[in-house]
Amino acid sequence: MDEFPPVGELMDMRLDGDVAGLCRVARAEDHRRAVQAVDLLGGMAAPEAADALIDCCGREGERYRGVRMSAVRALGKRGERRAVPVLVGLLNRGRPVDDPHTNRSLYRALTTIGGPEAVAGLLDALEASQTDGHRAEQIVDALADLRSPEAVPGLLAALWQFLPIDPLPVVRALGAIGDPRAGAALLVVADAAGTRPDVRRAAVEALHLLPWPPPVQTTVPERLLSRALRDQDPGTVHLAAELLSQTFEGRTHLFVVLKRAAEQPHHPECPPHTVVAACDRVAELPTGFAYDEQHLKYPYVSLLTSHLRESAVPAVRRAAAHALGALAGGTATADLLDALDDPQATEAVAHVLAGLPEPPVHDLLARLTDATRSVPQRRGSALALSLTGPPEAAAPLLAVLADDAAPTAVRASAADALGTLRHTGAAGSLAAVTADEEQPGALRARAVRALGLIGAPDTLPLVLACVRSPHETVRERAVQALGSFPVPEAAAALGELVDSRDSRTEDDDGVALAALYALDRMGGPALPVLTALVDRVPPDLAGYLVGALADRPEPEATAALGRLATTRARETYPSQVYAAEALSERRSPEAVASLRALVVNDGYYGPTYAAGLRGLTAIGTEEAVEHVLAYCREARYLHEGHLDALTAIANARAAARAEKDVS
């Protein structure tokens, strides 16, 4: 006798809506068929189906373990509230029900169904599993998924019991529920000296999910975030600073940080990343801090200016620039212009200047063209002008680009600015710099990049020539630039770069990957090249090719995805799955042939097969449905993908029958 009986008969019952027949099989002694019947009943809404599933949960013995687990899973999928007492009874036997898989199914089912009974059952199980850390963690995760305020008292009690061992799951669960009653306990965890860094961060993350400030006994709950505000983890510090910036007392705390750090640069309670976090909050919420300064005479602006000028930490200077620009606006222009001289903060300051209500365009132009100014000042001025975009900036930028006496870094910044401005009149000058091999390679690379941003058609031959440049950076920038020229000639050149790697050097890989990205951006002309690459793309780049094809709606792209998805080479397996998923998202009948190629009966079932079933079922044409049914009939075991497909098809047929009856 076949160990796995055919499922065709059970499928016919499911498609015909034969609840009674499936219930008989589910209760039968043939446990292999019973499992399959139970799985099929899980997708049926009839009350009789639920009755049979609940009965199956009570079947005793090792032989029926699979039936019980399938019934539990099916009841959870249905959201059957009548099953909660039975499921809780299984959970609270005081020992693992059958195995970890069954336990996970129970937690998942109770979480899906929800309700007070499910919460109470899980809390009882949590109390009974204090010595089994893994099981307790699973139960806590289930309670977190339920998001029920009724679980908070039990979780708070568990928090103190787990605190010496590992309170992390309970902390996360309390945050997920978001009940204000958890605020005091979470603050205590965040403030405790012995709290692990990951637990402290989780506590602060959880506080973000609660109303702030939470109701606590102390009059200033913000003080309980002091330890988190100077934590070694910058992420924890930023989270704490975000909470503090929401209240007056909290902003006072941040002011103290800025003041102490300005007066004592190495103050132990004001490490650099704490100062950065305080500055970031001023930049994000300038109105709140401006109110404080106006009414309390706190000198935020002078403190920020001090940090911008004198801090020894570049990150602090950059953060201070952003905060100063947001809080002081145009009144900080002079200080910010001076700060362009700081090579480690130049770019940040340039962005701040460009974002001012009235950017100092004339001052920036004067600094850009003044040969006596420092390189950072001129570079920053070019960047700020490119972000501001004044028409009068083009001519000075072109003059700087053409000035061979100017530092290379300044000329490169001018090239970047012209490209960012998409100034078509600059294409000729940029092309001249690009073609001149006497010019520094770094400058030529930036000029090529700018040509790509502008995209003037007459510069394409030059960009194509740069693709073969011996200078690595010029070559990479040229490849990226070709994506801005949507013509077959550029597409063909990019395809050759993907297809013709003579060695496995890191540089080859980088250029080939850049070529694929450029083809993805190019649009229509790239499609023939992308489809031609399917049969010869290197395995490590196949996933990127899938991404490019997935963005294309044409039938050719669909067929190419099908070829990638059905490749059985082990080294391309991840990209096969990716291609199958992309293919399953296509809902047009043209995708049926490619999806059918995914669904073949070779004794194996995996992600590509599941994707094929989903795609064919969603298309729903007669041809697609018949292929799904034929595949399922020959299956030796019904997996979740089969069951979902059969449920969708059965529901569609039932709806069609109902509509026919009405008409």
From TrEMBL:
SMART domains: EZ_HEAT (SM00567). It comes from Streptomyces typhae. InterPro entries: ARM-like, ARM-type_fold, PBS_lyase_HEAT. Transmembrane segments: none annotated. One of its GO terms (molecular function) is oxidoreductase activity. It holds the Pfam family HEAT_2. This is HEAT repeat domain-containing protein.
